[in-house]
Amino acid sequence: MSTEFVDNDRKPVGYGRMLRKEDPRFVRGKGRFIDDVQLPGMLHLALLRAPIAHGRILGVDTTAAEAHPKVKLVVTGAMLAERGLAWMPTMSGDVQAVLATDKVRFQGQEVAFVVAEDRYAARDALELIDVEYEQLPAVANVRTALDPAAPVIRDDLAGKTDNHCFDWETGDRAATEAAFADADVVVSQDMVYPRVHPAPLETCGAVADYDAVDGGLTLWCTTQAPHAHRTLYALVSGLPEHMIRVISPDIGGGFGNKVPIYPGYVCAIVASLLTGEPVKWTEDRSENLTSTAFARDYIMHGELAATRDGRILAIRTRVLADHGAFNGVAAPTNYPAGFFGVFTGSYDIRAAYCAMTAVYTNKAPGGVAYSCSFRITEAVYLIERLVDCLAFELELDPVELRLANLLRPEQFPYTTRTGWVYDSGNYEATLREALRIADYDGLRREQRDKRARGELMGIGVSFFTEAVGAGPRRDMDIMGLGMADGAELRVHPTGKAVLRVSCQTQGQGHETTFAQIVAEEIGIPPADIKVVHGDTDQTPFGLGTYGSRSTSVSGAAAAMVARKVRDKARLIASAMLEISVADLVWDKGSFAVVGDPTSCVTIQDIAMHAHGTGELPDGVEGSLEAQVHYNPENLTYPNGAYICVVDVDPDTAVVTVRRFVAVDDCGTRINPMIIEGQVHRGLTDGVGMALMEMIAFDDDGNCLSGSLMDYLLPSALEVPDWQTGFTVTPSPHHPIGAKGVGESATVGSPPAVVNAVMDALKPYGLRHADMPLTPSRLWEAMRGNPQPP
Ligand code: PCD
After folding, report:
1. pLDDT tens-digit series, residues 595-632
2. How far apart are CA 555 and CA 421, in angstroms?
3. Which fold has domain 23-31+484-630?
4. N or C terminus: fewer CB in 10 A for the chain?
5. Where is the chain membrane-spanning (predicted)?
6. The complex's ipTM?
């Protein structure tokens, strides 16, 4: 069943619509997630978290908790400090407390842990720990974090006298100022991309199992990057790397949330080392929302310079970035602001400049690539909102304005003013396809009629370019680990194959699409190719799955390793057919003698021969397998045009997303059905961020969004039937021409929704309101009282 082709006119090999191989286990409830891992004698860990955002720890009394009959162990920060484990490095060169020793720096921070016989006892015993705090004033407002009077959060850092985290700039300041000086028109707009949370269905967790006899540690954990995590655990704990095995089982959604290393994972390891038993830690929903990595939280001031007839000349932006209490950004080392540098978007812009200041606040750490390749969501939102602001000022149609400024096909490969080399695209064709599907002119006519009747209908357009597939080793690493990925392929004697990859599916369907990539190259049906991933003992090294990098990097590795196997198969076929390799032709799955298609051997015949007793060509070893390590030459640059149609209720300011057209160009499409699923997911995400989601804090740094009653996620009720389309502009450097797509829709949709709402509210003279566009916020804005973000 799992190999059934929905697109039945294709041969059952290679690319095309295909039901997911993983579905039978998921729909039967047979997936194996972290909480399904049960080991004999397993103990349970619970974390005590700070009730306040900022406070000095005066004392921790664990006596009563230790006396609990089911408690095996209680550990405080002080105890970890004795072992040199109270602090750990973050992925961005900062340090983060595993358990607080001196101060707590955000509400929900880890202070102590209990290990008990069962989960309930561990939780109960937390209540028996008595922590005495001296409450300190909290820095909850990013705008005042750098005030001289602001309390210093990171007094653990030697010589630190303020809350400054880092400064970053990109582009050419002088050229940009000159372009602005020459411009007929300048539009400027302040905008906030609020703090949001990836909120995966499955929260984070781990099971650590240390074997004191052989010195090996097995860690099952919710990680998007098992190999990188293993190396980091080895470096931090001093355990030898070859004795650490990280297993990432089925993952119930990642969305960037499962890229960082969290204190809970480290505590589970420590607990297993100390007790000699396996220890499980599973987060609850509030812990996930309040203490694991957030995303966005950028306050942006953007400006566009243009000619009066709508030629965009330059873009300039200042960003104030809230990084929380510890800089927990997970992005390549040299990119503290992720890939925000692509803020010139999809346009032919002559000059660009960005200056960013990042600060510490008393909030949870993070800054992860939540459904975007490291801050591209923020960059795309900035430029796409600014383009609409410019259209508003010039009274131009936002589509016309975009068409006049989009990069043209002959400009690729195109180097942006901030140094990114866009590989390929046909932006106008992509936008025109979206206009066609949406019947843009018809929509505008409908809007005119409705406006005349006092109804608020809005049409929003966005065009995005993403930069995914991090990344070339020369430019990108995470904590010194280059971002290249391995792949290993073994074809067994009967012609069935096993592909081993380092990336880690979290629901994207790699077990299906990666089998399809190999199938396309060597002609073995996808059903006969097993994809092994998520276990460092079973797979070659690589940096994992985030920033939509799997297809661009591991997918390329899979194609390359299959080609390597095919090359070997060709040599063996030449011996089998007793003909020179030059006289062989490949036809997906078999080699035949040129001009004599009946003299042929299939890949399955070759596999048996390779493992058998027959003659092999000189210098060719038996078996049919290969390994590669693929270092991408460049990122891939998927792009797309989105059109959103909304209705806004004039009395309640409730927004209804009525239609949404998404045309994506991700180059060669491996499995269109999976791509559509990915796009639907991302669009839903985008509607959520535009209209509902925000992690909010009060003035004391109390998190107000610690449950799904307070942090609203979109459901099927809030979203329309998505209409998708595509264009195909292959990536020139990727072996199969594919670009990533997993996050495209999250990146491209928020500005389309906001542009649509602003378009609906044009009769009110409104040009901008900040996300999330909740009814109360919009209602105030419609009455001329915009709420402070
Ligand atoms: N594809 C195809 N074709 C093309 C492309 C692609 O077919 N051209 C497909 C593949 O193969 C896969 C998918 O699709 O399966 C996706 O892909 P990509 O784009 O490469 O991506 P990846 O890497 O794989 O993944 C990742 C992503 C991300 S990143 C995110 S957020 C999200 C997405 O993915 N997540 C998730 N999606 C998803 N889904 C699900 N289900 N779940 C999840 O969790 Mo980050 O950075 O992490 O934030």
Report:
1. 999 999 999 999 999 999 999 999 999 999 999 999 99
2. 21
3. Aldehyde Oxidoreductase; domain 4 (3.30.365)
4. N
5. none
6. 0.99
